């Protein structure tokens, strides 16, 4: 088989060496993850504004397809908190705008983002995810966590709240406080407290009782399942649904239906409305997935291939679109559980899909009495760990410009919405990067007496020559800073009328792009018109090779010196 | 007076030292520029789809306002070829879309782009113009030149052609060839040939006849005026207008009217449609203006202040909007003529405005018989010098990625339109920059035997230690390349299972932003999980200061070494 096919289908590699031992490990991990995924997938479906079974459906075909195309051995694919929130916002807006159903819009969203990921993976465009700088992702994820928690208030309080932004949700709160359903509040509060306590204290407690660390860990992660079972029992026993508590209700049994986002009359408008959200969901999902995948792979000195990840996630999302699901990605918590529970290969994902298929076939009747408040509490506990307010002080101390991007993304995501926040974050990152790189550090340098070293005149007591200006550029030269160099040289020469030679020390210049080349030509020409000669020193090999391919050196009146010291000695001797 | 006011109103500085000698020089330059501007401003008004007098109007108030706020002594502001083309496209589309008049749309466009420039100047946001990299500007200007020339075919052939793209214009040509008006063609061809010859041969010819170089230069630049006068005489004498030749017709006499883009019913839609074009016109106009201004200022070791330029151009455009004009900028050819003719201060602009006012008052009756073919020929000769096809081969040889941006901008501008071309250019520049910086050069380094120097193992025969991996990153670390570093280190460590220490040599790292800091933390943690320790060496002072403000160094298990050699010696001694 051609090696290229193996790169595209990682399953061909691992499945041929698959051992019984690996299968046993994968099976255990799959059982643990299945238990964890049942409440999680139901909860994220509700978060996305869809019926609970959509969460189960979105956790089967995508897992199978990821196992075929993905490159991580331990990533667990399925609905995730942030992408579900984005799905709710995008599908809701598009459905309202075009008259299509919310579920149809979610299918289209999965199809589009899957197609975009596949396209990016095939064209090796994974690098576009770099547009999402860390402060942007951090601000976005924190804000999304808060937004998700706020969106669950309606389930925890038993009141109707609508809206995609924090102000919208909070503004409705006072008007509904009189209608709060206290049994629901009690159920939510108890589950919330129990899950919170389990998360913080169950593992050390069990270990103190002599339980092995591994089992203690799994048990504390499976706490939501226990909460689920107990609250179903309580709600069914006391018939709380009749008392006005909102429960999940009838969930159809059976395997996922085959669905196809049909090309109806509203489809063109729907696709147009969903294209940008789909791109954003793809990027966010990809970034989350790759970060988790890379962390877990590195622990075992394995590798993941970002382009294979894009293809795997793309196939998964298309799978979700064809089987009644919604956008999926590699989730953080479930992948960590999968890893910790000992998954060795993507076969664990296949086994998990089988486990969920059994759940979909046989467990759904038991979910009728599951209170929505329990699912909401599950979500709130999960997402509040995403909120990292410490990032604000850390980033403020480290870099003011990064702080601006973080704060802008956070604020706009909460106040205007997930898409506006993310786009403002990307835009501000680019603008701030441009601002920062538009002012490269340029030092006027002079000779450290008695040596061949040249240092910044502002930081060291050094010797300078009245007719020679030595400038060291501490950055590669390219379109973002080329014009600043022009300004800087013009200002320096205007301020030093005696100067006859300008020497650019290029020791820190790793690249000169076409814009910067043009600027250097303009600088040389303008200096020449003013009776000054431009020279270069310490140009790196690859940069010099490139300059030789242009006619810059033919037109340069000055010289290119191997060292800055040679330049100064030779020019001051004139 | 506070010094800040002087920075904002350069006129306060130069006017107080204004001498009779300077006034004489400025007067001569103004006379020459006025002569040149009469045909040019009429022609660019027609190009922008406006009545000819709009060109005269746009050359008065803007010049006065620039003289007050601008920082260049020689820049001549007024309608320019590329911005006029952009005005035609944007005002045409917005007028068709909203039902407003073309002239009203042009006023709004001037007001919006003036407002944006003023805003950018006050907020010191001039750096956003760096988004327009040199290949993008070059491709855009060349394509605009061709597009303008093609748009003048209708005047040169006397046939109706409509459209904003080259395919649209050329596709209509065959259908109209039968209707070509041959006297118009003859007039256009003669003027075209004469102007072309004057541009290439008049100056050397006059010099050979003993005319001084200065006068010869001015005479060759004033050739269009002669062409204008002769073709008016010919058209009037032979009554060519009656024979079917299109002439300028009645141009109202008088000073510019006071206009105000009124807030009518269609205004909100108009503003929305024009905002993006206005931003693009501002950026293009600013880039053109600053390049010319800087070149001319440098020749006399003067300086221009880009933020003052933005304020000056902003005020000029608002002035144009209030006096029946359209978007203006600092034009290349007129500024060079102004400089060559000896302008010393912005007062030359004031005198030019006065000259044009006289023309508007007394010359307009004479323009009735001016053939449109003559103006078209003036434009074609002027813009064809903008087309620089050599840039394609030069850029291809120098940098493939820059070539892609150039070709994309050029092709889309011609085939789809000026705005699409420019935006695709900016977008592709950013993507390509991201692509390029997403793969920084990272060299595995080893010791040059017998020295303390470390070099790339691929280029030199050097010594390496099986348990120590030395990596040199040749780029600042920031969001665009941070994840690549993660991938690269992960791959290297996965490929070298014996490695126990990774040392990052940071001698070329000028900055580490918050994203890269996060990546370094992730790398350190993942390596730690895999039993490998991360160390740094040769971290620059400012970068180290910054790292100390984060908690990265507290969590780093490895050390920070002053030199790479110290790192290797100390680690290999373990």
From TrEMBL, chains A, B:
Domain STAS: 458-571
Top-rank taxon, per record: Bacteria
Gene3D superfamilies: STAS domain
Keyword Transmembrane helix: yes
Keywords in alphabetical order: Membrane, Transmembrane, Transmembrane helix
Compartment(s): Membrane
Major subcellular site: membrane
Record Pfam families: STAS, Sulfate_transp
Entry membrane topology: Multi-pass membrane protein
CDD domains per the UniProt record, alphabetical: STAS_SulP_like_sulfate_transporter
TM segment ranges: 107-132, 179-198, 218-238, 269-293, 348-368, 374-392, 404-435
InterPro entries: SLC26A/SulP_dom (IPR011547), SLC26A/SulP_fam (IPR001902), STAS_dom (IPR002645), STAS_dom_sf (IPR036513)
NCBIfam families registered for this protein in UniProt: sulP
Protein name: SulP family inorganic anion transporter
């Amino acid at each position: 088989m051609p090696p290229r096919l193996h790169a595209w289908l990682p399953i061909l590699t691992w499945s041929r060496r698959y051992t019984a031992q690996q299968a046993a490990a994968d099976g255990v991990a799959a059982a643990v993850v299945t238990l964890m995924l049942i409440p999680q997938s139901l909860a994220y479906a509700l978060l996305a504004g869809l019926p609970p079974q959509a969460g189960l459906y979105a956790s089967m075909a995508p897992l199978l397809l990821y196992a075929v195309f993905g490159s991580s051995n331990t990533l667990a694919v399925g609905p995730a908190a942030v992408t579900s929130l984005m799905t709710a916002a995008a599908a809701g807006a598009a459905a309202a705008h075009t008259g299509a159903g919310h579920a149809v819009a979610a299918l289209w969203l999965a199809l589009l983002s899957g197609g975009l990921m596949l396209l990016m993976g095939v064209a090796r465009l994974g690098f576009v995810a770099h547009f999402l700088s860390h402060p942007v992702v951090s601000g976005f994820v924190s804000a999304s966590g808060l937004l998700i928690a706020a969106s669950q208030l309606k389930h925890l309080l038993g009141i109707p709240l609508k809206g995609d932004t924090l102000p919208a949700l909070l503004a409705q709160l006072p008007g509904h406080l009189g209608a709060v359903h206290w049994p629901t509040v009690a159920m939510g509060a108890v589950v919330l407290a129990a899950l919170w306590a389990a998360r913080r204290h169950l593992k050390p407690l069990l270990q103190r009782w002599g339980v092995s660390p591994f089992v203690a860990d799994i048990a504390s992660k499976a706490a939501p399942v226990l909460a689920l079972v107990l609250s179903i029992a309580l709600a069914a026993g006391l018939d709380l649904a009749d008392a006005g508590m909102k429960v999940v209700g009838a969930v159809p049994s059976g395997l996922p239906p085959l669905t196809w986002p049909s090309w109806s009359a509203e489809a063109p408008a729907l696709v147009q409305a969903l294209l940008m959200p789909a791109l954003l969901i793809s990027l966010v999902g990809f970034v989350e997935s790759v970060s988790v995948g890379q962390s877990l792979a590195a622990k075992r000195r394995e590798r993941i291939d970002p382009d294979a990840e894009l293809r795997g996630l793309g196939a998964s999302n298309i799978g979700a679109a064809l089987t009644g699901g919604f956008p999926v990605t590699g989730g953080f918590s479930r992948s960590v559980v999968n890893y910790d529970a000992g998954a060795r290969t993507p076969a664990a994902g296949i086994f998990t899909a089988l486990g969920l298929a059994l759940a979909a076939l046989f467990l759904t009747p038991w979910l009728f009495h599951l209170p929505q408040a329990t699912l909401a509490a599950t979500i709130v506990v999960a997402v509040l760990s995403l909120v990292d307010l410490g990032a604000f002080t850390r980033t403020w101390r480290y870099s003011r410009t990064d702080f601006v991007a973080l704060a802008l993304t956070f604020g706009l995501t909460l106040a205007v919405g997930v898409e506006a926040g993310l786009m403002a974050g990307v835009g501000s990152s680019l603008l701030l990067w441009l601002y920062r790189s538009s002012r490269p550090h340029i030092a006027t340098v002079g000779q450290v007496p008695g040596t061949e070293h040249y240092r910044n005149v502002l930081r060291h007591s050094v010797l300078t020559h009245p007719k020679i200006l030595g400038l060291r550029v501490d950055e590669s030269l390219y379109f973002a800073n080329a014009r600043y160099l022009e300004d800087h040289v013009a200002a320096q020469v205007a301020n030093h009328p005696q100067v006859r030679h300008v020497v650019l020390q290029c020791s820190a210049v790793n690249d000169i792009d076409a814009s910067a080349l043009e600027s250097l030509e303009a600088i040389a020409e303008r200096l020449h018109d003013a009776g000054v000669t431009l020279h270069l020193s310490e140009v790196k090999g690859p940069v010099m090779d490139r300059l030789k391919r242009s006619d810059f050196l033919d037109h340069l009146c000055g010289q290119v010196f191997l060292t800055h010291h040679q330049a100064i000695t030779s020019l001051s001797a004139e």
